[in-house]
Amino acid sequence: MKLIEDRYAVIGHPIAHSRSPQIHAAFAQATGQAMSYERILAPLDQFAATVTAFRAAGGRGVNITVPFKLEAFAYANQRTARAQAAQAVNTLRFDAESILGDNTDGAGLVTDLIANHGVVLQHQRVLLLGAGGAAQGVLLPLLETHPACLVIANRSKDKAQALAARYSNVTACGIDELAGESFDVVINATSAGLHGATPNLPHGIYSTHAFAYDMLYGAQTPFLQSARAAGVQRVADGLGMLVEQAAESFLLWRGIRPPSRDVLAALRTNA
Ligand code: ATR
Fold this sequence. Notes:
Blueprint: E1 6-12, H1 20-31, E2 35-41, H2 47-56, E3 59-64, H3 69-75, E4 78-79, H4 81-86, E5 91-94, E6 99-102, H5 105-116, E7 125-129, H6 133-136, H7 139-143, E8 149-154, H8 157-164, E9 170-174, E10 183-188, E11 206-214, H9 222-229, E12 234-236, H10 239-254, H11 260-269
Parallel strand pairs: 1-2, 1-3, 4-6, 7-8, 7-10, 8-9, 10-11, 11-12
Antiparallel strand pairs: 3-5, 5-6
Helix pairs in contact: 1-10, 5-10, 10-11
The structure holds 2'-monophosphoadenosine-5'-diphosphate.
The site of 2'-monophosphoadenosine-5'-diphosphate has 15 residues, from helix 6.
């Protein structure tokens, strides 16, 4: 007899590149969960209809990626505190009447930094580059690690100010105003790397034992290359964040924390 599998999916546009099916298949296998996980390409103007159709067909939950995280926030009828803070949703769970929206991106980032890379955030000076959706999704979990300070720097200063204004303990500035500042942890949440670029940071921005983290993945992202060129020895790309945010989604859906470190190691080997 074939087990009935619970259905999950990742929805985005584009979606063909997504590594989430591979990650969730590995989690399901490691934890013995009977579930399937597929990619769904939603037309740009059909996000809600696409989710509704998946639910009607028995879907139990979805991950949401670019460009639908704001629409997913609106689609949910219940939201976790971290989704509320992010004003964006990357995970939906479907129960009888409820559509729970969560945002696991920030937890994924913080877990990757602390558990996988041994980075200390508490009492450290943390700089977050960018003020778009990627930055917005991770602010609350970063703040909850109690850094000495959290600064958002963005090319357009007004966007950083608008984002920082939602929190009492975040400061904002333009990337061109960073001269003379120094940070222990620098996190790139800009999309510059997608265009082969990186924010132009002043000399001295990295403290002596600084850690540089790119939320994009790939060993040679422009940001990580520039950090290495600035003498930073401790760097990491965002592959671990991808796996850890998936692990948080899996926990929300299945009530089981999967072995994310093993899956990350396997993914790196096969990268
Ligand atoms: P995402 O959802 O991926 O964060 P977004 O909302 O379009 O995408 O935001 C992109 C972010 O990358 C913004 O902070 C953007 O800066 P601006 O607000 O000034 O546009 C930043 N960004 C993109 N290209 C950049 C570059 N070449 N240098 C510095 N910042 C860049």
